[in-house]
Amino acid sequence: MYKYNDFDEAFVRSRVAQFRGQVERRIDGSLTEDEFKPLRLMNGLYVQLHAYMLRVAVPYGTLNSAQMRQLAYIADKWDKGYGHFTTRQNIQYNWPKLQDVPDMLEALADVEMHAIQTSGNTIRNVTADHFAGAAADEIEDPRAIAELLRQWSTDHPEFQFLPRKFKIAVTGATEDRAVTKAHDIGLRMVRNDAGEPGFEVIVGGGLGRTPMVGKVLRDFLPKADLLPYCEAIVSVYNLLGRRDNKYKARIKITVHENGLEKIQELVEDRFTAIRAGFSGHDQELLSEIETAFAPPAFVAKSIDGYEAARLANPAFRSWTDTNLSEHKADGYAIVSISIKKHGATPGDATSDQMRVMAELAEKYGHNELRISHEQNVILPHVHKSDLAKVYAALREADLATANIGLVSDIIACPGMDYCALATARSIPIAQEIATRFDELKIEHDIGQLKIKISGCINACGHHHVGHIGILGLDRAGVENYQITLGGDGTQTTSIGERAGPGFSAEEIVPAIERLVTGYLDLRDSPAETFLQTYRRLGMEPFKAILYPVEDKANAA
Amino acid sequence: MARSFTPKVVTANALLEGDAVWLTEDNTWTRDIREAELITDEAHGDLRLLEAQARADEIAGAYLADATSGEDGPEPTHFREAFRTRGPSNYDHGKQAG
């Protein structure tokens, strides 16, 4: 993993000291809220419905055990003993007190973490494939590039006042687990005809009020050109992006209004103009960073015990069937720890659970953890011979739910239980859906199904790319939930289509149950997923299930 | 025809804890909406909001929220404001925890 150098350390410490002074001046009344707001947002501090909220960046979703333990310590000391992992690989604390926040930031700095640029109209935490460095289908570990982008974008003087926030995601794999097509810039590592690694550069994707699938700006960008090219994109956007209307300010609108060709032309011009300024220092830095992300020393051990444990313990076998992914090293597996126990809040982990995961990473996982945008925690490198022990420890900590990728593995934003922008609650809907399907005992039969819930149009819960998306709205003072179908956040990204009128809070869970059990009758075989069935049959049969005709007759 | 004014309370987030507070008639901040001043006159409401906003070292983000007169004092009319009097629905945290 990347280690802070003296510059990083001094920079983060100085930002903490700066913010400490700002908080003091806010508390003694010398700063008004209007004056303080942009300062606190630069440090990830929001005011929510019931308290402040501190959003801490987990850079490209990577943590070591000491960092995870520190997150637990912060949760205990200054919050309510838990944290909420988000769809942008961040962690949010929901209950900090204003006067404690500088100490929390100091504690983060102690483990090389911070909350800088987790808010505001800047380049946000760069997200990455949560299987980075471990995935079998990977060209290269994308985290070195993500770290380079982090260093470049942090406090970049040109990009502190962009028209709007700016999100970059990067993956080194064929399977897109980083939702690159729904980011302002998406970077997918590919090889050119000569076999050299580089990037497909995608621009102008995004969810929110106007969902858009990103467009390919460059089919192949040599790795060495990445930084100047990204700088050219953000630079063009900085000048061209609209500042007159907040809802038209994201780069997806800039690309849409100006056309891809015009953006391409401007970016290429700007790239040509600034390319020479990148005299190779960035490449020296990159190779230094790359050594920090060298793969751990994988070992060769027998996996006989693992196979025997699978045969002996059906619960363990079920967990290995759903929660493991293929690792690039022989004998290893990628473990996804579900923090979506049926009925629990998606993405929440208690401090005790964080410590258990930290310990497992230390003992069995080469000291590495990842946060996924699907709000789970990953142990990227576990030898199969250790899996039974890992599973047993997870079970003790209530972390062994075997539901990764299934109907109860729901993404949900905090919604109106916490968020000041929300128009309806998301968490209780997720809890009820997961509980209901657990009662029905059919989720393994249903198979791969992604339900994603947002509590407002800003779509932090990625509902547009859920196979089933749920959007909570305020309709005449009552919570109302709209369903979209057929969304997909992978390399075949598509935006879900609205199924029809919304449902009340009481109706939404039965509607989802009807939809999913209806799909079981529609699929041509158990191997056909919900999304495949939807793509084969289209909206109509699903609409008929959601809005049965007799209901209409009764209502008339 | 002038639109009719619906009763309001002045509400904000407390500066240090960040939780919901409401302005009382005697210019204190209460954590119980039932103790808040129920404002029935639009001009008075605007004035009270200005006065609240001037108290920068006590609160953040003051605004007028719809309320109605209940048995024990003002009550919220919208679910968002009702949530602010209680706390989140997934844990026994916030005001409902007492």
Descriptive overview:
The complex is a heterodimer of chains A (556) and B (98). By secondary structure, chain A is an alpha+beta fold. Chain A has four domains: 6-109, Sulfite Reductase Hemoprotein, domain 2 (Alpha-Beta Complex); 127-291, 2-Layer Sandwich (Sulfite Reductase Hemoprotein, domain 1), CATH 3.30.413; 304-396, Alpha-Beta Complex (Sulfite Reductase Hemoprotein, domain 2), CATH 3.90.480; 416-555, 2-Layer Sandwich (Sulfite Reductase Hemoprotein, domain 1). Chain A is built from 19 helices and 21 strands. Chain A has helices at residues 6-27, 33-41, 65-78, 101-109, 143-153, 226-240, 251-258, 260-275, 281-292, 304-312, 314-323, 351-364, 387-396, 427-440, 443-446, 505-522, 530-537, 539-546, 549-555, and strands at 45-47, 52-57, 62-64, 82-85, 90-93, 127-128, 168-171, 185-191, 197-203, 215-222, 324-326, 332-337, 348-350, 368-371, 377-383, 411-412, 451-454, 468-475, 478-485, 497-498, 503-504. In chain A, strands 16, 17, 18, 19, 20 and 21 form a six-stranded mixed sheet that branches. Chain A has a five-stranded antiparallel sheet with strand order 1-2-5-4-13. Chain A is globular and about 60 Å long. In chain A, 53% of the residues are buried. Chain B has 98 residues and is α+β, with helices and mostly antiparallel strands. Chain B has one domain (8-88). Chain B has a five-stranded antiparallel sheet, sandwiched between helices. Chain B is globular, with a radius of gyration of 13 Å. The mean pLDDT of chain B is 95. Classes of the chains: A alpha+beta (556), B alpha+beta (98).
Task: Explain the layout of strands and helices.
The complex is a heterodimer of chains A (556) and B (98).
Chain A: H1 6-27, H2 33-41, E1 45-47, E2 52-57, E3 62-64, H3 65-78, E4 82-85, E5 90-93, H4 101-109, E6 127-128, H5 143-153, E7 168-171, E8 185-191, E9 197-203, E10 215-222, H6 226-240, H7 251-258, H8 260-275, H9 281-292, H10 304-312, H11 314-323, E11 324-326, E12 332-337, E13 348-350, H12 351-364, E14 368-371, E15 377-383, H13 387-396, E16 411-412, H14 427-440, H15 443-446, E17 451-454, E18 468-475, E19 478-485, E20 497-498, E21 503-504, H16 505-522, H17 530-537, H18 539-546, H19 549-555
Parallel strand pairs in A: 6-7, 7-8, 16-17, 17-18
Antiparallel strand pairs in A: 1-2, 2-5, 3-14, 4-5, 4-13, 8-9, 9-10, 11-12, 12-15, 14-15, 18-19, 19-20, 19-21
Chain B: E1 8-14, E2 20-23, E3 29-30, H1 42-53, E4 59-70, E5 73-76, H2 79-86
